[in-house]
Specification:
There is one protein chain. 77% of the residues lie in helices and 0% in strands. The protein contains 14 helices and no strands. Keywords: Cell membrane, Membrane, Transmembrane, Transmembrane helix, Transport. It is found in: Cell membrane. One of its GO terms (molecular function) is transmembrane transporter activity.
Length: 328
């Protein structure tokens, strides 16, 4: 009976968030320079509809909305994992330099004219290399602490920012606008959303059985080890998963901030600290939030478009300050 009640407590919020995510995607698809009604949307999804509506939905708006959902979900899950690892609600892939390493590697690959598949592999390598660098430097000659890891991540992230600035300064002039928009988080040129969606789904499925271990690890490594958790392999698994998620998000939409920081923190205030619920809820909430942000970005000053990262920053800063104030 207790297990059934626990499953019900977890399923109700997830069902609500799933419905909210579908609503956000439908809203994003129907809103734009050409308004599409719900009946027209259903006609297109059913295989009919006008040719103009088919082109707008199936070739432009729906792939972009799905890419935004996948990117937001990837960043939110990565942020939730990093916050569990460091037991700090201020941790996210950007603070720890994962996104900076992925961005540097991806930009170098783009400047070299490499194909998109190689760019994705390079971004993952950059994120993983940055994770190893931060973890190794923070370890030093003794065991690492969360404070040392956060400080090392901030310094490494600043270093990646300097490298990116140097690349922008010496890069070809004709490529600068695209690079700048990509660094600000632009979904206008997002490629196929399916690789990011597949990675998000597979990672979520793989991480769900680790929910209990993550709950124990959140209480501290010593207590986790005392309860039989293999702490070091689990920590490196978290780092590798966060690196893969961050690299996939960066290669899909560039650098988008505050999703991985605000969403897990907000969900823990509302839903508690059970990772079996937080991780799938973060994927749904982060995806829905970025879909709404991208919808605002392409409609608020239409026909001009803003990078989605600008909207997430404008929404994320006051939201996070309010959450900090509320959780005094």
């Amino acid at each position: 009976m207790a297990a059934v009640e626990a499953l019900r407590r977890r399923s109700v919020p997830l069902l609500f968030l799933s419905a909210a995510s579908l609503f956000c995607i439908a809203l994003s698809v129907t809103v734009g320079s050409v308004a599409i009604s719900a009946s027209d949307l259903w006609a297109v999804l059913s295989g009919g509809g006008e040719p103009l509506h088919q082109t707008l939905i199936m070739e432009l708006r729906l792939p972009r909305s799905l890419a935004a959902f996948a990117t937001g979900g990837l960043l939110a899950v990565a942020g939730a994992l990093m916050q569990v690892l460091l037991r700090n609600p201020l941790a996210d892939p950007y603070v720890l330099g994962l996104s900076g390493g992925a961005a540097v590697a991806a930009l170098l690959s783009m400047l070299s004219g490499l194909p998109p598949f190689i760019v994705s592999i390079a971004a993952f390598g950059g994120a993983l290399g940055s994770a190893v660098l931060v973890f190794g430097l923070s370890h030093g000659r003794g065991s690492w602490t969360t404070t040392r890891l956060l400080l090392t991540g901030v310094v490494v992230s600043s270093g990646w920012g300097a490298v990116i600035t140097f690349m922008l300064a010496v890069g070809p002039t004709e490529q600068l606008p695209g690079m700048l928009y990509w660094l600000m988080g632009d979904l206008a040129y997002a490629r196929s959303p399916w690789p990011a969606l597949i990675i998000l789904a597979l990672t979520s499925i793989i991480l769900l059985p680790l929910g209990r271990s993550l709950n124990v690890l959140a209480r501290g490594p010593m207590q986790a080890a005392a309860l039989g958790v293999a702490v070091r392999p689990l920590e490196w698994s978290i780092y590798g998963s966060a690196s893969l998620l961050t690299a996939s998000a960066v290669t899909t939409a560039g650098s988008i901030g505050f999703i991985g920081l605000v969403v897990p923190h907000m969900l823990r205030l509302v839903l508690g600290n059970d990772q079996r619920l937080i991780l799938p809820a973060a994927a749904l909430t982060g995806g829905a939030l970025l879909v709404l942000a991208d919808t605002l970005a392409r409609t608020i000053i239409a026909p001009e478009q803003l990078p989605a990262g600008v909207i997430t920053a404008l929404l994320g800063v006051p939201t996070f300050l309010y959450l900090l104030y509320r959780s005094r």
